[in-house]
Design a protein that fits this description.
nine-stranded parallel β-sheet, binds flavin mononucleotide, alpha/beta
């Protein structure tokens, strides 16, 4: 199992890095693609904002250019069908190979505008959005959703059947309800029930933390593919590793320390060039902390991070990263 057919002509790989707002931006996507991540999805983009075509929103939807063979999915957020349609047209002009509609975001600022997971409470509207896009847009239309709004309203199965009848090409399900946000465990066995009810490819998402858990998730859910979110923070290579394990049975070695060091520095440089020095430095801090927290070290991580957070001179930041990672005998890679 390595690829899935999402319409009569388009085939894509079955491993996805999850869209994560504020995280899977252009630099993160490019870096994870260098490690073999086979699909790229941009973080959700509000249709309303994309229509305005301002520079910062277009940057969020920027397509990687160095490897056009990697499919690019643009995820749109919204509830007004005409606005979403306009945003979808701009996305296709921007190079999107697939348009994904967000029906799962639990954030209050999104659901209070009746978008994201709120669309699961308005099945007629959800269906009308997909019908319109399928009619007017010439690339596959996919959906990402949760199990339902709360445990008394788990409507993912009837809704996904309706969306399939409307022309949806693929469904990703995060195995929690909106009410759970990120609490509790993702319910992989519930995802398997969805698989019994739809024919379009189903991608399982939620709590996949390693290559072994990806395999276990596929076994339980019987899904056609997997999507990896938080486990890829500080580990942009994880989707690529999962891809080569589940498809080619190759278990890649952990990244050597100098690769991790070079990746952090490249990521840092890309953030500065995308966002400018001040904002780039600010954004880089969470990424540096995720990379470092994945290492097994007795060296004082907190002291290192607090020192690097104070530093804004890019040359000094890079040299601090290098000296912390490469001249430190007390760092081991997590097994
Ligand atoms: C910080 C953050 C931002 C997220 N942003 C998005 C988003 O833009 N679009 C989306 O569909 N899901 C978003 N999600 C949800 C993830 O795509 C994924 O469904 C969720 O994290 C569960 O997968 P995981 O357990 O592998 O992290 C976000 C999650 C996090 C933690």
């Amino acid at each position: 199992m390595s690829s899935i057919k999402i319409n009569s002509s388009k085939t894509i790989s079955n491993v996805f890095l999850a869209p994560m707002s504020g995280i899977t931006d252009y630099p993160f996507r490019v870096i994870s693609s260098k490690f073999g991540n086979p699909n790229l999805i941009c973080e959700m983009i509000a249709s309303k904002e994309l229509i305005k075509k301002d520079k910062s929103t277009l940057l969020r939807a920027k397509k990687h250019t160095d490897n056009n063979n990697i499919p690019f999915l643009i995820q749109l957020l919204g509830r007004n069908p005409d606005e979403i349609l306009e945003a979808a047209k701009i996305s296709v002009d921007n190079g999107a190979d697939v348009i994904d509609i967000n029906m799962g975001c639990p954030a209050k600022k999104v659901t209070s505008g009746d978008a994201g997971a709120s669309l699961m409470r308005e099945p007629k509207l959800a269906v009308s959005i997909i019908e319109l896009l399928v009619k007017k847009i010439n690339v596959p239309i996919t959906v990402k959703m949760r199990l339902g709004w709360d445990k008394d309203n788990m409507n993912v199965i009837p809704l996904s059947k309706d969306l399939e009848s409307s022309g949806m090409s693929m469904l990703t399900v995060h195995g929690r309800t909106r009410d759970q946000f990120y609490n509790g465990l993702a319910d992989w066995s519930y995802i398997s029930k969805i698989k019994d009810n739809i024919k379009v490819p189903l991608i399982a998402n939620g709590d996949i933390s390693s290559i072994d858990s990806a395999k276990e998730c596929l076994r339980i859910t019987k899904a056609d593919g997997v999507m990896i979110g938080r486990a890829a923070l500080g580990a942009p290579w994880l989707p690529g590793q999962i891809q080569s394990y589940i498809n080619d049975n190759i278990k890649q070695e952990d990244q050597p320390l100098n690769t991790i060091c070079n990746t952090i520095i490249t990521h840092y440089e890309m953030l500065l060039s995308c966002y400018g020095i001040e904002r780039g430095n600010r954004i880089s801090r969470k990424h540096i902390s995720w990379y470092i927290s994945k290492l097994n070290t007795t060296h004082d991580v907190k002291v290192f991070l607090s020192e690097i957070y104070k530093q804004t001179n890019p040359i000094k930041v890079k040299s601090m990263i290098k000296s912390y990672l490469l001249s430190n005998n007390e760092i081991y890679l997590n097994g």
